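Researcher: We plan to redesign the surface later, but first we want a full-length starting point. Tokens attached.
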């Protein structure tokens, strides 16, 4: 039997964290190519450090002339991302940072395994395993620790950007330890928050006075008590932030991006990858299926695993685990989800409308637990399979 009384911790990082700066740039590059051609192929990786951003990887458009034209836009895309995040530091400023573009055309050997040929289905862009997860701990069907860790940083970014709290800087990390009783989240054991601040004279106590009201605002009422430990900027001053303080790289925050450690992870990063890469699209599909299982009332918790081989269209396996909370057999749920969605790479993209420039917005504050948007953003958060699942199991 699973433990019922325990503490569990998850962390989040803000859009100004060095790795998240890189994720944002990589996904903005992806969006630019998808806006030009929905079937564009992109695998963009970004590295950032003091006064420097380097973008590499491979891209592909059917029109090679347009490919070269779009290569010339990469620097402007990068500067726009850094400006929107809010970096105007002496050693990391959107106007003066040096941008090096090392993107090149996609390998023909990779393309031959992915492109649909005569009489051949489009194959997966790589081998690998992908996990999706959902639980009934929050209305968004996400684990409470990661959901509220994201919520804290999202709120602080809002008040920083709208001018309410001009002393806050873009770089921040949050961490919540949640107390569970009888398997349900009931309170916060500790709050850890480190945030960049622009006033060098601010102490940790000063920073706490700024951020505490917003943290209290986003957490469930009663979860913060007199016993909750607070650790706000525990090392003291945090003035130098972002890539000037620590180098950043695309794809280094894969647990932050998903379930905060509450569920398995297949190891593949998301940002900068077009949806032919099953690292991304199948992880989104797995979340979509798991969320619909929980939303349908078939389970309180659900993990879905998919696996693929490069160049092969259909998943090699579909696995469901409801962690002992299922109202139906896991094997029956596996069969049902397999019948309700085409899980080939193209089937996933078409079902979820993924060939669109909708990815830069995913780069911070989690890829899951977000509201579906009118233009197709976060389509994998829809719960439109609920009725079909109920009838199929």
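Model: Full-length starting sequence:
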């Amino acid at each position: 039997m699973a433990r019922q009384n325990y503490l569990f911790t998850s962390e989040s990082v803000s859009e100004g964290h060095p790795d998240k700066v890189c994720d944002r740039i990589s996904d903005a590059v992806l969006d630019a190519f998808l806006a030009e051609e929905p079937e564009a192929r992109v695998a963009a990786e970004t590295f950032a450090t003091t006064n420097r951003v380097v973008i590499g990887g491979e891209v592909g458009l059917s029109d090679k002339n347009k490919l070269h034209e779009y290569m010339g836009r990469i620097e402007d895309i990068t500067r726009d991302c850094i400006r929107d995040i809010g970096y105007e530091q002496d050693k990391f400023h959107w106007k003066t940072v040096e941008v090096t573009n090392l993107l090149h055309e996609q390998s023909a050997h990779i393309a031959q395994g992915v492109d649909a040929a005569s009489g051949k289905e489009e194959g997966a862009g790589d081998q690998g395993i992908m996990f999706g997860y959902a639980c009934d701990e929050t209305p968004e069907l996400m684990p409470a620790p990661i959901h509220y860790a994201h919520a804290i940083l999202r709120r602080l970014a809002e008040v920083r950007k709208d001018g309410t709290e001009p002393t806050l800087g873009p770089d921040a990390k949050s961490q919540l330890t949640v107390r569970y009783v009888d398997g349900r989240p009931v309170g916060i054991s500790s709050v850890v928050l480190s945030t960049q601040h622009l006033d060098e004279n601010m102490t940790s106590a000063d920073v706490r006075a700024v951020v505490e009201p917003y943290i209290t605002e986003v957490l469930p009422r009663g979860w913060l008590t007199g016993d909750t430990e607070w650790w706000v900027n525990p090392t003291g001053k945090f003035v130098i932030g972002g890539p000037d303080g620590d180098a950043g790289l695309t794809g280094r925050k894969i647990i932050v991006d998903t379930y905060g450690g509450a569920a398995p992870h297949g190891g593949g990063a998301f940002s900068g990858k077009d949806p032919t890469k099953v690292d991304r699209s199948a992880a989104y599909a797995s979340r979509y299926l798991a969320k619909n299982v929980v939303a349908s009332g078939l389970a309180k918790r659900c993990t879905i695993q998919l696996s693929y081989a490069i160049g092969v269209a259909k998943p090699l396996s579909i696995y469901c685990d409801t962690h002992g909370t299922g109202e139906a057999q896991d094997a029956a749920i596996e069969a049902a989800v397999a019948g309700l969605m085409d899980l080939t790479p193209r089937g996933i993209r078409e079902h979820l409308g993924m060939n669109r420039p909708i990815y830069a917005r995913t780069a911070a504050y989690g890829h899951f637990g977000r509201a579906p948007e009118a233009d197709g953003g976060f389509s994998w958060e829809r719960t439109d399979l609920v009725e079909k699942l109920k009838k199929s199991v």
